[in-house]
Each structure stands twice: as C-alpha cells, then as structure tokens.
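## retry 2 of 3
previous attempt timed out at serialization; input unchanged, resubmitting
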Amino acid sequence: MIKRSILLLTLFLSVSVIYAQNTPGSEDVSINAAEKLLQSDSKLSIGGYAQIDFNQPINDGKYSNANLDVHRLVLLFAYRFSEKTNFVTEIELEHVKEVFVEQAFLNHEISPWLNFRGGLMLVPMGITNEYHEPPTFNGVERPNLDSKIVPTTWREIGAGFTGRIDNASLKYQVYLMNGFNGYNGGGIFRGTDGYRKGRQKGAESFMSSPTLSAKVDYYGIPGLKLGVSTYNGKSQSSLYNGLDKDDDAAIATADSSVIGISMFGVDARYRTGGLEVKGQLNIANNKNTDEYNDFTGKDMGSQMLGWYLEAGYDLLFGADTNQRLVPFIRYEKYNTHAKTEGNLEINKAYDRTDVTVGAGWWLSSGTVLKADYQFYSDAADNSNGQFNLGIGIWF
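## retry succeeded, writing output
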C-alpha cells in the first residue's frame, strides 16, 4: 500500500510540474488568514472566517437526524508594533459554546528571509492545517486525512524561524514546540483517530521533551505550490513530573507511557485557468507502541498512512464575473493501523476509503455556498454516506 500510495502521488506531482511549466498560472495559492494580516500596513488589522454546516448521515436501514451547526467562527486580530514586529492571534468559537485560541504568536522580521516567530502556532504539516479557511478548500468538511492522521487544526506552543528565499522560490518554517499529550493519568492515543485527542492547543500545556517541526514550500512555477514537511519527537507524559532520576523502575514506567513520533508529508496544489488539482501524502511512524498499548490498554498503530487526490473545474472561468462555480471530486485513503506491533492485531475498520463529490459556488472571493455527498467505506466491509450543505466566509 505504501509503495502504491507514493507512486500515485509522485505521478500526480510529476504531471503537475510538467503541465505547469507549459501553462500560465492564474493566482497565488500560498496565503492564509494569518499571512494576510501580516502583509497589512495597518496598525490594527481585523479579519475572520466562519463555517456553518448541515450534515445528514445516510445509513441503510436506519433513520438519522441531521446536524446543523455553526461549526466554527474565528476572529483574527493583528497589531503592528513597528515595521518589523507584529502580533497575530485567532480566537475560535466552535459549535457556539466552545472557545479556543487557535493562534497567538509574535513575528519579528530580522530580514526578508529570516523571521523569528514564537507563541501558539500552527504545525506546518500538509495543506489544510495551515490553509483551513472555508473558502480556501472544496467540500463542506475538511479532508478526513486531515483529521485522523494530521490532526487539524493542529497547533502548539513553540518558537523558531520562518522566511522566504525569493531567488530560489522557497518558503521555509522550522520550530521547536511542545508535543502531544500522550499520557496524563491515562493513555490518550488510540487507533480510531491517532494523535487527535493528544493536541494540547496551548491550554496549560506541559512538556517533558521538545519536538521539531519543519516545512519547505516551493512556489517558483505560477499557480503551483509544492510542500515537504516533517515532524519528529516524543509524546509528552505527566509521569515524568517530579520523577526521581535514580528511580529506575519509575523511569521505566514513565518510558512506557511515551511513543516516538516521526511524520513525513508531501503535498501539491495547482491552479491554471479553470482547473484546480491538489494532492497530499502523510506517513507517520510510531515507536514504542507495543509498550504503550500494554501499559495504557490502547490500540495505537505503529504506522499511520494516508493520501488523497482532488480535482475541480471552475465552470465560470472566462465569463465576465468574479464568481466561481467549481464541481469537484476527492478520493481519500487513510489507515491508522497501516502497521501494528506486538500482539495488537490490525483493525480493518481503520483502513478507510472516502469519496467526496460536490460543488462550491463562490459568490465572491470570501463567500462560498457548498454542497457535496460523501461515500465512506472500510476494509471491514462497512459502508455509509453523508450529505452536506455549507456556508463559508473569510474576510
């Protein structure tokens, strides 16, 4: 499966690059909400985005109530202290009743190619974790790969450097950050959704060891962006707090509550004329899962793997309008039990395939109406679906 996945995405990237080298691009695909505010010359900048959803599960032989939700409402603020120094924050309200700080970081420009950045920041992995504003992606819901393997929205506290090297058409990010909470009175990780429950989100986070996160993006071909990302470190455990360094038995117990994480990702986005395509591949290898599962009673896989390919076309391209009408299709394969260790058997229900077919109508660059249908299946022969409607806003 790994070789096939890598081959498919390599073929996709190769075709995209060859096509892009011979085709004029149409627009920048490399800006998100925080970067947009950082580029503002105003002393105080305000922005926001919102997502309002209707989800109707479809299960054979069962009635299911639809869910209507103000999924998220995010308010963005940036303050420019000087020409070189800015502060950016995002305040998120989820499901009307939950409040989170999605980002809160200081950015100081040392030079155009070197910026210091510190605070609560997005982990630069894949596409959607950084570019998750509803008008920036097709479909009412984000790709499930970016929930089960890359736990979007994934952010942690740390510091590092970022910048652009325009002569080489490269953007880079490299940060030291706190890691996932893997154990805090009990095991956190599990096979059904990997690291997702372990996100600390800057909320009284604790750290027993740092993690390294880095990404390099190439933007030298108009309309095309290629990214390579990595994340390496250990999960965090409350058992190390106050631990006697000479207590070998307690240290061995604490070590059993930690897994080593090494994630690698490649992604590509390309838009030319009315055509837009994207793809992403993520592989995460986890060490010490045999000991972790024995100690916590969980079922964390030793390897997680996922990829998707997506294509859409703007039917209004070339018309005398700023609107866009984009039918699309997305194919996803993701498996949180690509490999397991010890006596843990592979759960076939975690080997999932999703196909999403739908369309988005952009009334303007920052407003979109969406509709799609998702077909879900897994290797254990389970299948169901979901019909979605959504409103997306970004300003």
